[in-house]
Design brief:
The complex is a heterodimer of chains A (79) and B (236). Chain A is an alpha+beta fold. Chain A is built from 2 helices and 3 strands, in the order E-H-E-H-E. Chain B has one domain: 3-Layer(aba) Sandwich (Rossmann fold). The chains are: A alpha+beta (79), B alpha/beta (236).
């Protein structure tokens, strides 16, 4: 099993990286570019096979450690 | 007064903090992050640097170091804790201070001197700063943009907990004087109990005239003053 965790800045948080990438895309001539949000992607290899237990544990870890709820949102997928 | 200065892997202002405290006539001891006790400490300094390489988020890994349990306990008992730069980030990640420090608005690492206005002398960290005195302190950070949700900001304002703001030479907290995009130009703040504070600028690097400023002494003198006033029996 593998967990995929996507962490993105909350919409209310200033995201200068996203803004800069957005401007660069527009300057390069790409059309229809709206707001860009730069986040993090983590892949966690899981050694067990209890998907529900893995989800509970990683959800806890995402909340406490892997993301900062003050500034970030996360999405956890297990496959 | 005895200061405990924490030392994480990749702390790099720990020696500066020890030097500044000792130069001011106090004792300072480095405490390795794997220690589970602080020993005989009257105040704790969480120093600047790049603890754990700033991996994941600044301060995110350091906050789970064993020594941080002792710091949590020390703060819960009313002990003075000062976080400088990366130390401020660690204290925010640890939940000892509210909010978070994110990437500078400019995306640049800013290394320069700034002016700070002290918003209240009602704290152990600011009591000896003369009214109207602007502090000139160095900053050196890439992720010092203070962020908190509107409710937290309102609580900080209402509780007089914003200790320092970035200002221009005239003392105005405007946008040009803000080196990192911090909300309301916030450079430093304290917790509700007022015994834990953090700031992005480096007072420990501004305690000798050869370094261009001695304004940082005022912050340490405030702490010493607070400590003496709190423990008269011991001083006697």
């Amino acid at each position: 099993m593998k967990a995929k965790i996507i962490i993105t800045p909350k919409k209310a948080v200033l995201d200068p990286q996203g803004k800069t990438v957005q401007n660069a895309l527009s300057h390069m001539g790409y059309e229809g570019i709206g707001a860009v949000h730069v986040g993090k992607y983590l892949e966690v290899e899981l050694t067990g096979n209890d998907q529900e237990r893995a989800r509970q544990q990683l959800d806890d870890a995402c909340h406490k450690f892997l993301s900062n709820p003050v500034i970030e949102d996360y999405r956890l997928e297990i496959e | 007064m005895n200061f405990a200065v924490l030392q994480f892997p990749a702390s790099n202002c720990d020696q500066d903090a020890v030097h500044a405290v000792q130069m001011l006539g106090h004792s300072a001891r480095l405490v390795w992050h794997k220690e589970s006790a602080l020993g005989d400490a009257d105040a704790v300094i969480v120093p600047g640097g790049f603890s754990y390489g700033d991996y994941l988020r600044c301060g995110a890994i350091a906050r789970f170091s064993p020594v941080m349990n002792a710091v949590q306990q020390f703060a819960a008992n009313g002990g003075f804790v000062l976080g400088i730069c990366n130390g401020f980030q660690v204290l925010c990640e640890a939940g000892l201070l509210p909010g978070a420090l994110i990437r500078n608005r400019s995306l640049q690492f800013r290394c320069e001197h700034v002016f700070l206005k002290t918003l209240t002398t009602d704290s152990p960290f600011t009591s000896q700063i003369p009214a109207g005195k602007l502090l000139r302190l160095p900053i050196a950070h890439g992720e010092g943009c203070y962020f908190a949700d509107p409710e937290t900001l309102a609580a900080l304002r209402a509780g007089n907990r914003i200790l320092w703001q970035y200002v221009n030479a005239a003392g105005e907290p405007n946008d040009e004087a803000n080196p990192n995009g911090a909300l309301e130009n916030i450079a430093g703040l304290c917790n509700e109990r007022r015994n834990v504070a953090g700031l992005m600028p480096h007072p420990e690097r501004a305690c000798e005239s050869i370094l261009g400023s001695t304004d940082g002494c005022l912050l340490f003198e405030s702490l010493v003053h607070a400590f003496k006033n709190r423990a008269p029996a011991r001083a006697a």
